[in-house]
Amino acid sequence: MAAPLTPAETRRRVDASLRRRYRTERLFRLYGLISVLLGVGFLVILFTTIIGNGYGAFRQSFVRLEIQFDPAVIDPDGTRTPDVLASADYSQLIKSSLRQLFPAAEDRASRRELNALVSSGGAYLLQKMVLADPGLLGQSRDLWLPADDEVDLFVKGSVPTGAAGSEQERLSAQQIGWISQLKAAGRLELRFNTTFFTAGDSREPELAGIWGATKGSFLMMLVTLFLAFPLGVAAAIYLEEFAPRSWLVDVIEVNINNLAAVPSIVFGLLGLAVFINFFGLPRSAPLVGGLVLTLMTLPVVIIASRAAIKSVPPSVREAALGVGASKMQMVFHHVLPLALPGMLTGAIIGMARALGESAPLLMIGMVAFIVEVPSGAMSPATALPVQIYLWADSPERAFVERTSAAIMVLLAFLLVMNAAAVWLRNRFEQRW
Amino acid sequence: MRLTTLALILIVMALAAFFLGRRRAIAIGGPPGAARKLHSLPKYHGYYASLWCVLPGLVVLLAWAALSDTLITSRVIDSLPEALRNQPEAQLSLTLNDIRNLAAGQMVDESRRAEFEVAAGLYTELRAASRRILSGLIIAVSFLGFAVAWGRLKPQFRARNHVELAIKVALIAASMVAILTTLGILLSVTFEAIRFFRQVPFADFLFGLNWSPQTAIRADQVGSSGAFGAVPLFAGTLLISGIALFVAVPIGLMIAIYLSEYAKPAVRRVVKPILEVLAGIPTVVYGYFAALTVAPVIRQVGASLGLDVASESALGAGLVMGVMIIPFVSSLSDDVINAVPRAMREGSYGLGATKSETIKRVILPAALPGIVGGVLLAASRAIGETMIVVMAAGLSANLTANPLESVTTVTVQIVTLLVGDQEFDSPKTLAAFALGLVLFVVTLILNIIALQVVRRYREQYD
Q1: Are both A172 and A221 inside the same structural domain?
Q2: Which long-range contacts (CB under 8 A, 24 or more apart) does B33-36 make?
């Protein structure tokens, strides 16, 4: 053994080691703080990127044009039958209106550039107007028509203006000149983009909307809610209140816990093999999507419902049985009403997860390009997250903006659902 | 009769049966309020009558739905001319399809219209007849069921017990759905995977180093036999999940430690829900963020350092996936850290240890099994994650450990093989199910181990 240390030496060593230990302590604490900041910081970056990219899509450039509904172009024979009115070349009206505004554009190339300023969907709008009211023929109207997506991006300043001549450039100098002339004349404006909320998908960004996908999602959620909630609650009631301790019940329990952690894409494979190939249900149908999401959500609902049932104190059960209720009456008259808020909270959280899910839907054909808004649970549809995936893959730059805007809408839905769950919990939570 | 009309009729009948049954119970049991001789409350007699009215009809409906189509089809086949009837199996099913389409009023090949017209007519006719018979049968059976129940309603009749038994059976059936789901997954995926392994040897799939899932259109085509060696996919999956865990485990763990040991309650109350928002964001949003924002940044940083980074690098997908599972790791670790008994902490402080020393030498070792379980669950999440890698990782199956290169994963390949139109006997489509089987088995094993570890750990301190 070494010689005993003097008190001063001991003191010095302890002080030194204390300094070192306090330094590690501070560092450790700092790492923790940095981790928290990293997590929160990432969330902030994510939200600012998406909102920064997406808020522009809620506004859209429109061009005000004076449209002459010229009978000679639409219906030269004067038949006025819907067939003739429907098949007429309405883009001609837009073209001639543009030509009146800019008579200087005379050669073919610059005419084509001029016509490219207005969306190709403009003709479709005019067609709808005439079909709704054939009396328009021969009249002239001042109309706001959607501008082309490249014009729209330029007006919003999403394209660097100094980029003219670079590879980024999609608009010619001439077109940019026209745009500023239109703006100066008050004929080019940013207005609220109603198309985005009311239209189905489209290859043209300025005509694409999320209503089709939203409705598809809504139909799927309806199927999921009507299947997963009753099934989940019933299963939870059986497992908590009635199931005897047996191997079968153990198997069911392990099963449910495992299903909650099975990758979602596997549920998609199940849906493809069973619902589509075996039962012959149609591809891309919200019904099939809803069924797949039901199977996926069911474990979540069961686990939450069981927790809610467990939190009802045994005294309630004993009191019910004591006044002569049967076991079934005890469960349905007393336990279930008390556990219902907790079950609903769990169901809403499960539904929120299902709403954001897209991988299994890719398997059952909900990625098809579908323009029409779905009319029922059997008609082809896509879902909101799948629409986001599809738009994210589109080459048009204007879809970047719309993808982010669709994400904002999806996140808003999720926020509302989760807020509802929290509200339910706080409103009805009972402490026993 | 339309199915909805039939359903409506059934509902009306069930309601009527309920009220009739209840009225009869009241009638035979004496006036309400007085001492009654009934065993069960009148409403249970009503429920009983109602159940007898609906359930037999439902059974008939299900049986009919399962059988009628095969019956009709075989009758239609019998009616076909000799030449059509003796076609090979696949041809015959195409012909039947045409007949069905024609019957549904859709377009068919005009040149063969005449051949099919008779059969299509027969098909429509048989279907209509089947519907009529079914409706009649269901209504008849419902009346019969109601009559049976009616005969049984007596004062001593134990209606409540019968109704409760029916409810209990329904509850058991509901809890069986979970088992059926697992069975469904296993059977469907295994069945298709076995068909795949008949065409591609098992060992070639599991140990082959080359993945290029093409099937030839013509037999003499160059590269007609696709290669189905899945090792590059497994390696890619491991690489990306590894990067994700490398990000998520330290950060998630430190967040859990900081929030449960250092942060003031007020801070904890604010920060915890904020971090849970990360877990609630749909994966497609992460995928979009990874592809659009993170990947270009990594590419630029790489370029400024003189590195050649693929635009769909494993690093980008892995980083974002890591962020996605941070809340997962942190909330699981938070649970286990809080489960470590207070006495252990206080013992350590009493010996003069600092907070970080207590955490590192006492709490973490005590919580280790639970944390390992959490990490395993996180790994299973990362392996099965689809949208982020579909959007941000590549399609080319490179066998590499370099995170800056593009790799592909099991889930990405499943999606690319199955999206779009497909025929169901080519190895290309079946390969997706084989991959799905591997994915299911691996995640299942990870989950079982993790759940077991977590559960045993919880019992240790309870």
Answers
A1: no
A2: B36/B155
Range of the domain at A151: 61-191
Instruction: Kindly report, residue by residue over A257-315, the tens digit of the pLDDT.
Output: 888 889 999 999 999 988 888 887 888 889 999 999 999 999 999 999 999 999 999 99
* Within-domain flag for A357: yes
Number of domains in chain B: 2
| Residue A1 lies inside a defined structural domain of this protein | no
A263–B439: do the CB atoms touch at under 8 Å? yes
Contact: B178, A252; criterion CB under 8 Å: yes
The answer to whether residues B407 and B239 touch, using CB atoms and an 8 Å cutoff, is: yes
Mean pLDDT value across residues B74-102: 74
User: How many residues does the structure list for chain B?
Assistant: 462
Task: Name every residue whose Cβ is closer than 8 Å to that of residue B426 and which is 6 or more positions away in sequence.
Answer: B215
Token pair of B53 as six digits: 């009215």
Is residue B364 in a domain? yes
Are A420 and A367 part of one and the same domain? yes
Contacts of A131 (CB under 8 A, 6+ apart): A82, A85, A86
For residue B210, is it within any domain? no
First to last CA, chain A: 63
* Of B64, B49, B48, residue with least CA distance to B6: B64
Which pairs count as long-range contacts for A40-48, CB under 8 Å and 24+ apart, including other chains? A40/B271, A40/B274, A40/B275, A42/B278, A42/B323, A43/B274, A43/B275, A43/B277, A43/B278, A46/B281, A46/B285, A46/B289
> Given this model, what pLDDT does residue B421 score?
62
**pLDDT tens digit string along B399-447?**
888 888 888 999 999 998 888 666 666 778 888 899 999 999 999 999 8
**Of A32, A254, A266, which is closest to B185 when you measure between CB atoms?**
A266
Does pLDDT of B109 surpass 70? no
The shortest CB-CB distance from A33 to any of B258, B282, B384 is to: B258
- Which of A24, A273, A393 has its CB closest to that of B188? A273
How many residues make up chain A in this entry?
Answer: 432
Best CA proximity match to A288, nearest among A276, A270, A273, A301: A276
For residues A366, A367, A371 and A377, what is the CA-based torsion angle, rounded to 10 degrees? 0
A contacts of B357 (beta carbons < 8 Å):
21, 24-25
Does residue B67 lie within any of the structural domains? Answer: yes
Domain finish residue from B157, B189, B213: B157
Q: In total, how many domains does chain A have?
A: 2
Asked whether the beta carbons of residue B185 and residue A267 sit closer than 8 angstroms, the reply is: yes
Same domain, A141 and A216: no
Of B233, B239, B189, B176, give the one whose Cα is nearest residue B433. B189
Among A42, A269, A299, select the one facing B178 at the smallest CB separation: A299
Instruction: Tell me which residue range forms the domain holding B151.
Output: 3-157
* CATH code of residue B241: 1.10.3720.10
Q: End of a domain among A191, A221, A255?
A: A191
ipTM score assigned to the predicted complex: 0.89
> In terms of pLDDT, which residue wins out, A147 or B2?
A147
Give the residue from chain B lying closest to A385, CA to CA. Answer: B284
> Which residue is it, tokens 């009215």?
B53
B288 touches chain A (CB under 8 A): yes
Kindly state the helix (H) or strand (E) to which residue A249 belongs, with its residue range. Answer: helix A247-259
Q: For residues A312 and A196, what is the distance between their CA atoms, to the nearest angstrom?
A: 47
Q: Are residues A233 and A336 in the same domain?
A: yes
Closest approach of chain A CAs to the CA of B46, in angstroms? Answer: 16
Cβ–Cβ below 8 Å for B278 and A43: yes
In a domain? residue A410: yes
pTM for this entry: 0.88
How many Cα atoms sit within 13 Å of A362 on the Cβ side?
Answer: 27
Query: Quick check: helix, strand or coil at residue A354?
Result: helix
Residues A67, A68, A74, A75, CA torsion sign: positive
Question: What's the whole-number average pLDDT of chain B?
Answer: 85
pLDDT band at residue A361 under the 50/70/90 scheme? very high
Q: Using the beta-carbon criterion (under 8 Å), do A35 and B255 form an inter-chain contact?
A: yes
